[in-house]
Amino acid sequence: MELGPRVLSGWLHKKKAQTSMLSGSYNKRWFVLFADRLMYYESSPEAPAKGSIQLSSCTGVQHVPGEAGCFLLSSHTRVFKFRAEPVDQAAEWVQALDGQLKKLQKAVHVSDMCTSPMKLPHPVLNTSQSVSAQPSDSNFSPILPWLDESAILRAYQETHFTKLDLEQLEEKYRSLCGEDSWMGKAALYTAFRGTEDHGCLALDRLFACLDGDQDGWVSPLEYVFGMELLVHGTAAQKAEFAFRMYDLDQVGEVQKRQLQEVSRSILGVIQNSYSGQGSGLVIDQGEESVDELVDSIISSAFEDVGSDSLSLAGFNAICEDHFAVLDNFIRDHARQSLNQSCRTATE
Questions:
Q1: CA nearest neighbour of 153 among 172, 171, 129
Q2: Cβ atoms of residues 298 and 263 within 8 Å
């Protein structure tokens, strides 16, 4: 593989993954900085590489105050900590890495964009897609590309996803679609080990919320925005999405019975999807016990409301205290759906 000219090379101590930033051990590696990646080796570039860090997934580099020779390289999924040897070379590494990151950002364009040009802390989620030939017949499978140029630009501007993330999302999306070009409801059912013939309230509502233009298909851009919400959305944004799932009558108000029905269905989907996999998400209880658990949680949530219905504001007020478990499940499942994007080596 042709990596291009070397920008900088030398010995660095790289902190092992899965350890605290305040303690833990380092591995001494020979590092070589190229235009778009940081490669590291056991001893020299002649030996097989131990791993690499893609600069397209990195967001910044900085010195560690009070720790001579130490600096941090931040990516969307991890913060890498290094110690230079000798320590006075840390400044050279920080300058070189910062320079390459800035070059990559300046070189951004639609066909080769590596990171979002807009650092939005809380992206605005808009699920309308600017593509033509939207299918009007639910039995019609549109033959369209993954994302057209304008959709790609919107994905970079309105989400936190990198080029690598979108490539991973495309792979996942196409695997979900099967023979179709877009994702229909049957594909969503299959993804959760269910069949549309038997029906499932939770999956029906999830599909309706993802299908922003209600055309019977979850388009690629709608899928991207849905994943952005689940992975990077704020608590308020996720609460609003959940509220729409529970609002069966679409009147801007959720009834207690609706919360119970949809919640039971959601737990049923979790049980069905993860049963037999040794997952901690599966509740090892009978159907009757699960119903009692749902009723207990929801009754507790409504105790201080004084009504059997909730507006969006009221729903937001109780979400933080009573729906943390479901939020954690959604977050974990969404991350799994990214196919462990931006994976980094742990040596």
A1: 129
A2: yes
